[in-house]
Amino acid sequence: MRLNRPARRATLLQRQNVDVPNLQLKPGCSWAETYARCVSAAPEAFESDRIRNLSHGEWQRVGVPGHHVTPVDLSPIQGPPRVERDIAASAVEHASDQHAAWSKVGLAERRERVTAAIDSMSFTTPVEVSECWISTPLSSGSRAAATSAALATRPHS
Length: 157
Known about the structure:
Number of helices: 5
Helix content: 40-55%
Strand order of the largest sheet: 1-2
Number of strands: 4
Oligomer: single chain
Order of helices and strands: HHEEEEHHH
Shape: extended
């Protein structure tokens, strides 16, 4: 079975002898907290056991959930379900049709629609993605640990 990007990264960190259990998230940035914010913001996109796919303008229970893990502690997390080729092709065709229709709408009307859509959204206090980068103490001083730490942490801009 081919692993997705987070699972491959976690495997790479383990191979490099990085102390994966010592990676830490800032408060409020755990998978469970982030996922809960997503469910709160768009409940129609989630079910109790999976994420739905947006297809033909509706959130649908299609596809097979894959194996996804968080690279912080390798615990299982929800990920996007894989859909069959015909379902994906149909969804892409529908999106292309919608794009073609949208491109024929005048710029002024597009601005009005987008502004109205944004104004209708109720926002909670956003958590900056940059605030959720993981960090790890460098105890071994090894090149692998330093490389992994550089990948895992990011300076705030």
